[in-house]
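Researcher: Go.
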Amino acid sequence: MKQLKYLLLLIPSLFVSCNHIQTVDFDSYINNEQLKKEILDYKRIHGQEIKKHEEEGYDTYVEVFYTLFNDSIRKYVLNLTIDPETFLFYNNIKIVKLNEEPIFLIQKSCERDTLFGDGSGIDKSSYDYIMEKYFPKCNESYVKYGYIYPQVCYEPEVRFLYFFNDSLIFKQDIMGSSQDQKLLRIGNHEVWR
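Model: Structure:
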């Protein structure tokens, strides 16, 4: 009976300590050299901005939001992030390593997304893991105040990429949001995505 009691206390702690965020190698997860080139180019273009944020103590990463519209059409939006706020709104997140640098790959739903994602968010243990490992300055204020302080409004230039059968068919760098939609022409069809 005593052993059963300890076992019952141990089982919940196994689930609390797990995180559901996968870290994978870029090439083993995404087989698209053009996308890889675009991500590296985006990082290069924003290199000074990334360096400035890091000098101010902010960890800066590339987020890649992607939407699969069907077997042929994919939308990728490249964005810089200095805090883990995104992870409160999406739960299908992978950390891919590109040249040993982490990139946050976030799958969006084409049906349910709103301005604040699909509303699902990641579980608390995964959020805590990301905060501690990738955003230590944010984590410090989160532990101290219960929220990220100071709140930073940061909206960098984003890069929209549309692929049709793994070929890049549309590219645009703009000030905007990963939620913006673009008119996409494929053959005789016009689609807002």
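Model: Confidence is low (pLDDT under 50) at residues 1-19, 112-118.
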